[in-house]
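S., here's the first fold you wanted:
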Amino acid sequence: MKNTVGSFKGIFPSIDKSVYIDASCRIVGDVKIEKDSSVWPLVAARGDVNKIRIGARSNIQDGSVLHVTRKSEKNPDGFPLIIGDDVTVGHKCMLHGCQLGNRILVGMGAIVMDGVVVEDDVFIGAGTLVPPNKRLESGFLYVGNPMQKKRPLNDAEMAFLKQSAVNYVVLKDEYLEEAN
């Protein structure tokens, strides 16, 4: 992880020892990654002008970009990026200064912008654009560009939100085992 993890203004990422981080990633600055999470190839996570927090058992898949918004006079806290527990972020997603609750699935290629709050148990469909400052209500599927609240999640989809995270914990453990 020598070239993968770096400091910014003297602040280094804090990464639990159980986390898998692919060697092709770049994780910089005020980034904290909790237990049993994983960060897959070509992910960039820049906690340079605000903080990034990734909860337990969450996975950030290939080619995703995680960034934040600087604090300013108009927005004294800026927009940090907060990702809860058991979150699956699909391939090539862009998460910028938003807050994701627990048990979220962000479909491949989705973009979630500044000030968005995603409550627990939400499915964001592939390619969805979530414009700034929206709130996504728990228990629903959101799709489209711009996003629209499509329908309530069914029982199988609700169960899959947690199972997807579990699947990636198993996979990251296999990668860590092979590396040793």
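And the second, which I think is the more interesting of the pair:
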Amino acid sequence: MANDDITTPTTVGKTRFYQGEGMTQPLFCIEPGIPCQHAREQASELMGVVRELTITGVMEDNPQLVWASHYLSALAKALLDDAELGMTRTDH
């Protein structure tokens, strides 16, 4: 018997990322409807890359790698934040 009344939690699409002081236009946003588990897995993968970029950027004194890790960590945080919203909403 299928359990049709239980749906997979998905991202809600409300999380935006703004970069820089006074910015009013989001640089990126999370799309609604991504399965939360997938969003969390992707965020984990991104954070692994962020870790490596940060270590390499600091050790090699390469600010470009540090900035890349900064942007990727913001994307990972946005994915996690939106997945959290999707997992805690009451309408699914």
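Why I say that: Confidence is low (pLDDT under 50) at residues 1-5. The first helix runs from residue 36 to 59.

Talk tomorrow,
H.
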